[in-house]
Amino acid sequence: MSEIPARPLQVRDRTSGSGPGSAIAAGVGRFVSPGNLHAALAGRLPAMDIHHLLHQRDAILRQARLANLAYAHQRLGEFSARLARAGITGEIRLEPAAPAEGRPEAVLQARCSPAVVAEHFLEADEAEFADLLAFAGSRTDGEAHVLDVAEIETVLRPALARSLAREGVAGVERSPDPGLRFRPS
Prior knowledge:
Blueprint: E1 9-12, E2 23-24, E3 31-32, H1 37-41, H2 50-86, E4 91-95, E5 107-110, H3 114-120, H4 123-135, E6 145-148, H5 150-166
Parallel strand pairs: 1-2
Antiparallel strand pairs: 1-3, 4-5, 4-6
Helix pairs in contact: 2-4, 2-5
């Protein structure tokens, strides 16, 4: 088997910024070729053993589920606050993306001007909102989510909070103000 020729891949750390054609990778040397990527990362990533991972699988899946519940709880609170700031109340309809039906993006409809919705929600926001509603159990069949804005705070978020509390997650009642933007890492 022939060796892949070493073509330098410029990788800059977060402190030096990134230029055209470079990728950001914190803590990695400035130039990494495909042949020495493993060597560049050696000592920077924790060693993993497949048997340990398989033994930890249930715990990892539980933590991922809890993280998703917490994320949905927080983000739905943020969406609720944004709807309130936009003055959107009453029934909303959120249709998930359905490219086969000619709807490539999720569409949020409310009893207000479409310009108000467009001013406060990007297409990516509407897609995330649809995903969060599906995760929270509003609809699972790909059909439109139709709900009153108040149900986010009176039905969906409390159900997520109860699920988290049943699993022993503390601090749900003291979760950050939904008006503050959570920045996922």
